Structures are given as structure tokens and as C-alpha cells.
Amino acid sequence: xxxxxxxxxxxxxxxxxxxxxxxxxxxxxxxxxxxxxxxxxxxxxxxxxxxxxxxxxxxxxxxxxxxxxxxxxxxxxxxxxxxxxxxxxxxxxxxxxxxxxxxxxxxxxxxxxxxxxxxxxxxxxxxxxxxxxxxxxxxxxxxxxxxxxxxxxxxxxxxxxxxxxxxxxxxxxxxxxxxxxxxxxxxxxxxxxxxxxxxxxxxxxxxxxxxxxxxxxxxxxxxxxx
Length: 226
Description:
The chain has two helices and eleven strands, in the order H-E-E-E-E-E-E-H-E-E-E-E-E. It is mainly beta. Strand 5 and strand 6 (83-98) form a beta hairpin.
């Protein structure tokens, strides 16, 4: 096979892999840091044991998808008149877990990838042990203005996401369910890690495609009334 055909095959396979993995995910829009929303109304506390963030990324230009979880260490959300008004959530970077089932190469270990992702090459967990999300706005979801691949989206959520020493405001569709006792927030979206300066292996040369710039986050956050 010629070098040109090999590159074409690699690109096609990578595209198919990425599409298959992210075909039900929304692309989060980004802007500069915004003012935090005033958290008014009834307060709910994040149930850290019941909440989880699933992440998904691809390796080697689309091949070898990797996936795992992150845990929320604390958080809160406020509700007034049946609408989320504000909230803050903290993610424990050291809780980052790589599912061994996603590492199938004989010479690779999930624990090695975990250590690599926590190293200064990426999140630098020893120096920046947390990632923070602060709600800046929650509006009703209007399918005529924003298309969502998420099932049952009810709202557009905006918030400042701080990774290491960089803060970017992101907006994504979410399904929010509110009752007197609980608030459940579910969303699945894609972000570009280079927006936060996480640029390891993100250059244009295919030889540098160690890990895709895009990665997927699936939120399943549960909070209970105080």
C-alpha cells in the first residue's frame, strides 16, 4: 500500500471511529469568562456518591478510544420558581480513572495512562488537583434555535470551566429534572481541550496526533435538598 493510501485509510478509520463514539454528543460552544449567576432560591447539595462524569477520548488520531470516569468532590445548585439559578461544582482531578477495558494493547496499561493524564503533560494534578465549574446562566432549551443530540434536553447551561489556571465559558444543552427533594442534571457534549491550553500532541502533523483535541464529557449529576 502506498504512503498516500495509508494516510487516507488512517484518516477514514479515524473519522469513522470518532463519529461512532460522538454521534450522540453535542458540541459545546465557548467564549471568554463570564460573571457567575446569582444563586438564589432553594439550595441543593451535590450527592458526590451518586454523581459521575464519564469521559471519552481517542488516541493515535482516532484509533484506540479511551474512556473512564471522574468524580465530583463537592457542589451545590440553587432553584427558584422551578428554574436553576446558579451553582458550583468541583471535580477531583486525582479521581481520574481509566477503564482497563479501553486499553487493549498488550504493551499498555490503564494505570500508565492515568498517570500520564495526571502528569504536567496534561492536567498536572499535583499542582492543580481540582477542576471547577461555576454556573453563569441557565435558559430554557429552544430546539428552533439550538439543535441538540441529547435526549430530552430542557435547558441550555452556561458556566465558567476552570482547568489548571485557564477559565473558559462553555454552553451546552442539558436535561434538568427538579423536584422538592432532588435536582438531576444530565448532559453529553464535546469540548476542545486546547481551549484550556492542554496542547500535548495537538499539532497538525499526523505524527503528532497522539490524542485527539476533542473529548467527550457525559454528566450525571444528582443533588438533594439541604
